[in-house]
Design goal:
The chain has 209 residues and is α+β, with helices and mostly antiparallel strands. Helices cover 15% and strands 25% of the residues. It contains five helices and eight strands. Strands 1, 2, 3, 4, 5, 6, 7 and 8 form an eight-stranded antiparallel beta sheet that branches.
DNA sequence: CATGGGATTGACT
DNA sequence: GTCAATCCCATGC
């Protein structure tokens, strides 16, 4: 595991945390807490995307920001929120240096705080499906396109380091899902101890159960 | 300028 | 298992 600069238990992750290679950040975000409004959940699944590979929204020759991806090329530690399939909102943590298009897609959280509000936003869903997918996650925590560009370090939408007593995730690696290009890169990270992840499970997780 | 395709989900056969 | 919903942008004529 990469040495993570200046992370304090229970405190928001600092900008330096995000200003690192995006794959390292994706792995290290598993187990951290995503907070929005009165609700929060433990991050149990992430994927890394980088402008150098064709599955990224930032991929291009040369890579350039569009109206959609402007935030993705901006400074690290912000939220990049985009519309998926014209319907859903999905949220990334912007990584690496300002000017580089790189982000970690947050694919699933285990709801911990504000369960009543979360269940009200996801009527009829069993608890393990409340936020077990990138579109479900934003619905559950009330994250929308208006949160694009939000400061994850100091804003109302933020990511917090685990506390001393919080469970330590068992991170397993797999290939990213829902894409058709660069499908071989092992850039998906899942907490194998959690039931709140999206499918398909990585082989290492199936083997452990 | 017209068309096609997603970093998805949920309803339905 | 199949399929529609629906926005932004890339591609191609």
């Amino acid at each position: 595991m990469t040495t993570v600069p200046a992370v304090e238990a229970g405190r928001p992750l600092p900008v330096d945390f995000y200003a690192r290679p995006v794959v390292d950040v994706a792995r290290d975000l598993v187990g951290c807490l995503l907070v929005h409004g009165g609700t929060a959940g433990r991050i149990v699944e992430t994927e890394a995307y980088h402008e150098s590979e064709p599955a990224s929204h930032a991929f291009g020759t040369p890579p350039r920001p569009t109206s959609r991806t402007r935030t993705l090329f901006g400074p690290p530690g912000r939220a990049y929120v985009y519309r998926s399939y014209g319907i859903h909102a999905c949220v990334n943590a912007v990584c690496e240096a300002d000017g580089i298009g790189a982000g970690v897609l947050l694919r699933a959280v285990e709801p911990l705080v504000g369960l009543d509000a979360i269940r009200a936003r996801r009527p009829g869903r069993p608890d393990v499906e409340l936020a077990s997918g990138p579109g479900r996650l934003t619905l559950a925590l009330g994250i929308g396109l208006d949160d694009d560009g939000a400061d994850l370090v100091a804003g109302p939408l933020r990511i917090v380091a685990p506390g001393h007593g919080d469970p330590v995730p068992r991170v397993v690696t797999g290939t990213r899902v829902g894409i058709t290009k660069a499908t071989d890169l092992p850039w998906r990270f899942v907490d194998a101890t959690s039931a709140h992840v999206s499918r398909p499970w990585p082989p290492a997780m199936r083997a452990a159960r």
